[in-house]
Each structure stands twice: as structure tokens, then as C-alpha cells.
Predict the 3D structure of the following.
Amino acid sequence: MFERLTAQPQDKILMLMQAFREDPRADKIDLGVGVYKDAEGRTPIMRAIKAAERQLWEVEETKSYTGLAGDPGYSDAMVALVLGDAVARDAVAAAATPGGTGAVHQGFDLIRMANPDARVFVSDPTWPNHVSMLKHMNMPMVPYRYFDDESRGVDFDGMMADLAEARAGDVVLVHGCCHNPTGANLTLPQWRELVALLQKTGATPMVDIAYQGFGDGLEEDAAAVRLIASELPETLIAASCSKNFGIYRERAGLIMAVSHNAEARALHQGTLNHINRQTYSFPPDHGARLVTMVLNDDTLRADWAAELEEVRLSMLGLREQLAGELRRLSGSDRFGFLAQHRGMFSRLGATPEQVETLRRDFGVYMVGDSRMNIAGLNAGTVPRLAEAIVKAGI
Ligand code: LMR
């Protein structure tokens, strides 16, 4: 029977990770997968997470099951982190998931159960796994314009025109902050316009927020999701702790369904529990528990927030340095967008051939659409990257 299987396309981001590992060049530069690296090229365990792990080892008394939605304390802490006081806690059904990908998956499943015909509108471009998961789940998908290749900013008029086609029963998937892969984001007034459009069309928003704290700050990065959740009758939110807590391999995420209606909330909670049971029963707990401990302890939380801010500022510094270096070498301002973008990623705007030249001739690895992970740079590699970009004729 299994001979009927056909080979699946390999994930481009993960393939690139492998190719980088196999490249023997000592001066290679990895700007591929979205993992934060410090100036020494390490992905450190955050101080507060390490401290929480130490405490957990002392106090944890059982590894017995939690609940189908995970530990309620984790949901409470994460709902507060993402939504602040924008909505009442009892407006939110939530379930812990294995990472942000797990949250996106469970959100898609909830949509499919509610309306098998729902079309999911996705930004063009979006995180490639959004597209691939929707295909895998046989869900209708409609791309909407997002990125303006010329300005390397958001094509807001195009986006609004395309999203005007969404209807009640459809879903509009947006990135809450730090758009992946482009790094270009809506301004708050633009988010307000989008909310008004969603109110008009009746489409349901789904917010994927995987980089809270990596863009303009923890509160600032949550402004859009808070606005959407407070203004619209229903919102789905998929949150990830991989990046902002640096616990990539622990797989901690949360799917939230905001409904402002107690009856609906109970139904959503029961459905999320059911979906978890059908896919993996109980979600993993270790990473979620560390996050809960950090968020609920004033000292650990302050240290975590301070370290996250250091990470954010270091990425901003690298953006400024790269934009400056390219201004100097190219004698033009055409790379100024790098300092305007936010989060880990920026789309450089190079052709696939130029991306290949960067890899082959300069050992610079970025995704084929020219997405660069800014956090893969350091003060020493920025000048080399800038030189390579100019020499590759970009
Ligand atoms: C990325 O976009 O590089 C990250 O979100 C990691 C992944 O799973 O693709």
C-alpha cells in the first residue's frame, strides 16, 4: 500500500538549514531559518528560562497528565501577555499546543469544523508553512496582495482591495507583528482601517503572532491583535513562545478563540479540547510551564523582559548598521527599508539567481525569495554581507 505514496516537496527553509550545515566554508553566513543568534552565533537559553528550569527541577512532583487544553495557568498567563486587558478573560477559549505551528494547525482545524467551505485569505507572501498546511488540510485558500516590491513596504491599497472580496464565513489570516517573510508591517491607522473592513465584510480574522517583543516592544507588538480582538465579534489567535522565550525545541504555543459570549466560549473551549484529543491528546507541558513560571514571578519576568529587549535592540542595531553600510557602498538610499522593517526578517528584493550567487560565491544563505534572518548577522558579518549584496548586483 505505501508504494502509492508520492514524494512530498521538501520545506525550503529546512532544506536551506541542511545545506548550510553541509557547507565546509568557515566564513559562511546563515540568514536562513528564523532562529535568534547572539553576536557569537549562539542561540542562548534565556536567563529567566534557565532559572525557571532550575526551580522546576526542585519543585515538580509529578509528570502525570495536565488537561486536554494544557495547564489553565499557562493559558491565563499567555492570554494576559498577548491580549492585556483588551478583552475579558472569560471571552477567551484557549488551548496549549506544540509550538506556534501547532496553534496554527488547531486554528485551521477549528475553522474547517465550523465551515468546511471557509476560504482562508493569506498574505502574498506569507510564511510558506501557512500555505503548505492549508493545502495539506484541503482548505480553500485565497492570496491577498501584501508586499510592494518597489518600495519594499506594504501594498496597503492592494491588500484592502483584495480583502474586500472576503465574506462572512471566510477567514483573513494576518501576522500580528513582524511579518514573516517580508518584515514590512501595517501602521496602527492601517490596522484600524482593516478592522473597519472586517466589520463591513463579516469575515473572521485569525492573527498569527510568533514574534511578540521582537519588533517595537512587547506592548507595541500586541497593539494590533488587541485592537482586532476587542473590536470584532470573533477572533482566532495563534501565539508562539518559541522566539520570545527562546524555547524553540520545547514546543510551546497557544490557540485562542475570542468570542465575547459565554455560551460561544464554552462551545469553543470544548471544541479546542476535542481537537487536541484527536491530534495528540495532551499538549506538551515543559515549555509551557517554564513560560508560566517566568510570567508569574516578578523577578523572572523583569529579567526575561530585559533580555528580550536586549535581543530586540540588537536586531535593530544590525538593521541600522546594514542599511548604513549599504548606503555607503551603493551610494544610494535604496536599502533604507532595512532599517524600517521590524522583526527577524527582511525581504531584500533580490532575484532567485542573485540569491544563488550570494550562496555560491559568498557563502551567504538566505531563503530563495531573498528573506534574510537579520538575527543571523553580527557586527563583523554585516560589512561582508553588504559587500556581497553590492557585488552580486542587487
Ligand atoms: C521560520 O520562518 O524560519 C521559522 O518560523 C521557523 C520555521 O518553522 O519555519
Summary: The longest strand covers residues 92-97. The two ends are 49 Å apart (CA to CA).
